[in-house]
Write a structure and sequence with these properties.
Rossmann fold; single chain; alpha/beta; about 375 residues; seven-stranded mixed sheet; 15 helices
Length: about 375
């Protein structure tokens, strides 16, 4: 199979879909890889690195899309990229379709077979291709939250860890999954007073057993969430429903209960955000203010640490990438129900229920798509 890796064009996105090591493995499996010139520069990989690994360097994105049977990316295809997709081609990348009707419509119109990183599963019920970026985003969230809290950025002027004689900032993490756990660890490591809210008692027991004394946790009832948010200096939204739009857990009315200059970091913004006032921003212009509360809602947070993120993502995606290339998408999905869970569109049909429910669109099962 000819595998194509174009340069990411989403604003301030520096990651790349394939590392030179991934190219080397794909070539060893008998495939050819076409990499757009400059695709890896943001992550520290040169065209020479890719050539040494066995890739061909394409002069532009048009060549990559036109000549490849499978396109491997990081972020969802932008409008100009979606016009280059075609039926019979496989797209393997993050999609986050539930809050994005325009992208969904374009993918369906193109007929492309789109497999989304964020809905591929594993035997433990986890999301192995989302997890590495969730880990990165979780660890970044207190860092960018601390920056947002600085007075020059409109924040309260509070130091996350405080100093002797001055109490540390209060940090509330909504969601105790991968993002929330990593966010809480880092925030606590910075000296903040941290509480994690979640509705899974089993997850809360796990956090208590593993991190006892590092940070506190509480059941995320509506009243408990409202009370915690009102006391917080920094709130990190870390809630995920796989493939579906994120629930709105903090309303605009609740902003009035928060301290002026408090900060919100919405890590769920890729799925629409878990705060009513969230809207996607970029690394170039990351924060905005609503009713005196500073919002950080960058939709590709891991892109800020592109080399770490690219290496982490590549480690996770490579086995699935090779399976798709070696077997073809139908056989690979038929052999692996966890990869099959990643199928979101095929031949103009939506194949993921949560996206259909979120957007009010008809959908068929992945098994039905395999039978087409």
């Amino acid at each position: 199979m000819k595998i194509g890796c174009p340069k990411e064009i989403k604003p301030q996105e520096f990651r790349v879909g394939m590392t030179p090591d991934a190219v080397r493995d794909a070539v060893a499996h008998g495939h050819s890889v076409l990499v757009e010139t400059g695709a890896g520069m943001g992550a520290g990989f040169t065209d020479a690195d890719y050539t040494a690994a066995g890739a061909q360097i394409a002069p532009d994105a048009e060549s990559v899309f036109a000549d490849s049977g499978m396109i491997v990316k990081v972020k969802e295809p932008q409008a100009v990229e979606r016009k280059r997709l075609r039926e019979g081609q496989v797209l393997f990348t993050y999609l986050h379709l539930a809050p994005d009707p325009e992208q969904t419509r374009d993918l369906l119109d193109s007929g492309v077979t789109a497999i989304a990183y964020e809905t591929v599963t594993d035997r433990a019920g986890g999301l192995p291709l989302l997890a590495p970026m969730s880990e990165v985003a979780g660890r970044l969230a207190p860092q960018v939250g601390a920056w947002t809290l600085q007075k020059a950025n409109g924040g309260r002027g509070v130091l996350l860890g405080g100093v002797p004689g001055v109490l540390p900032a209060k940090v509330v993490v909504i969601g105790g999954g991968v993002v929330g756990t990593h966010a809480a660890r880092v925030a606590a490591g910075m000296g903040a007073d941290v509480v994690v809210l979640d509705r899974s008692l089993n997850r809360l027991r796990y956090l208590d057993d593993v991190f006892a004394g590092v940070f506190r946790n509480a059941y995320a009832s509506g009243a408990a969430t409202a009370a915690a948010v009102a006391e917080a200096d920094l709130v990190i939204g870390a809630v995920l429903i796989p493939g579906a739009a994120a629930p709105k857990l903090v309303s605009r009315a609740q902003l009035a209960t928060m301290k002026p200059g408090a900060a919100i970091v919405d890590v769920a913004i890729d799925q629409g955000g878990c705060f009513e006032t969230s809207r996607a921003t970029t690394h170039q212009d990351p924060i905005y203010e609503v009713d005196g509360i500073m919002h950080y809602c960058v939709a590709n947070m891991p892109g800020a640490v592109a080399r770490t993120s690219t290496l982490a993502l590549g480690n996770a995606t490579l086995p699935f990438l090779l399976a798709l290339a070696d077997k073809g998408w139908k056989a690979a999905c038929a052999d692996d129900p966890h990869l099959k869970a990643g199928l979101n569109t095929h031949a103009g049909k939506l194949t993921y229920a949560a996206v259909g429910e979120a957007l009010g669109l008809d959908w068929i099962s992945a098994d039905a798509a395999l039978a087409l």
